[in-house]
Specification:
10 strands
């Protein structure tokens, strides 16, 4: 019996990765989608896409490795703080480990040559393949015909003639393929990574300027509400009940956490980046708690915690 060809496909959940899965499946390749999640993006979109495709998603949490890379990316950043090339490289290195350990024939992606100026130009694609150790084993089904022939093509594991030669930023070719492959639902082209968000990136840059060795809690807390900077203090104000509960769980040693006692309002955390007095931090949290609360009494009372969470 002929050996079943197995491919490990990096699955973002976007249209390109969905099409890559279909192209390979049409050639009889057994496709296993894998999604990497971190503190800055999750696998929700990939889960939805795989449900439509009838594929079981493999989820890998590489948050700590991703955070370590973010602090000092080798290949620079995008318009915000997003280190796209280094991020993709880390995914490819992790995918290579899985490929070797679980006996996949090659790794595939939905990348399209020239679709993203920074991370999907010819030089970047070649760099990623070389640096990841996947030279010749990284197949991009949507752009294969305008890229060098890969090992699975040379070995006849996939038919190059049945792959595609799409390039550029236009989406016409991909949209036409949705009918051919009966893909009914797909997200609009947009990054699911918070690192491309200007507001978050600006706050993360400030955070890194104070504290280069940030941890998971630091990276996540600036996603939990309205973020402000007062002198050397990070202030986070919850926007709703869910965020208030999250902030309460995230308080750690050194933080000053506040809740309104005799009126309704949000939770507030003050986190010192450098040495700050308790008196100064108390003033900040009360100021912001009053500002973002309604119907504040003439003599507002507050509950304050300065101990680490239990």
């Amino acid at each position: 019996m002929k050996k079943k060809v197995k491919a490990l496909l990096l699955m973002s959940g976007g249209l390109d990765s969905m099409l890559a899965a279909k192209i390979l499946q049409n050639q009889g390749v057994q496709v296993t989608p894998v999604c990497f999640k971190s503190f800055f993006f999750d696998c929700a979109m990939a889960q939805k896409a795989c449900k439509q495709l009838g594929l079981k998603l493999k989820e890998i949490d590489f948050g700590k490795k991703h955070l370590a890379m973010l602090k000092a990316p080798r290949f620079g950043r995008g318009s915000a703080i997003n280190p796209c090339i280094d991020c993709h490289l880390l995914m490819f290195k992790e995918a290579k480990k899985i490929m070797k350990a679980e006996g996949y024939d090659f790794v595939a992606t939905g990348e399209v040559l020239g679709e993203r100026p920074m991370s999907q130009n010819a030089r970047a694609l070649e760099l990623l393949e070389k640096e990841s150790g996947l030279k010749g084993l990284l197949l991009r089904p949507l752009s294969a015909k305008v890229l060098p022939e890969t090992s699975p093509e040379k070995k006849g594991l996939v038919n190059r003639e049945k792959l595609y030669g799409i390039s550029g930023r236009g989406r016409k070719a991909q949209l036409e393929l949705t009918n051919q492959f009966h893909i009914k639902e797909f997200p609009t082209p947009a990054g699911g990574c918070i690192l491309t968000d200007k507001n978050y990136s600006d706050n993360l840059k400030i955070l890194l300027s104070f504290k280069k060795n940030i941890n998971e809690n630091d990276a996540l807390i600036i996603r939990q509400g309205r973020v402000f900077w007062e002198n050397n203090v990070l202030i986070v104000v919850a926007r709703d009940k869910a965020e208030s509960e999250t902030l309460k769980k995230m308080r750690t040693k050194g933080d000053l956490y506040a809740e309104p006692k005799n009126f309704t309002g949000p939770s507030v955390i003050a986190r010192p980046m450098k040495k700050s007095s308790l008196l100064e931090m108390t003033s900040f949290v009360k100021q912001y708690l009053i500002k973002y609360s309604k119907q504040v009494p003439a003599e507002p009372a507050f509950t304050l915690w300065t101990l680490p969470k239990p």
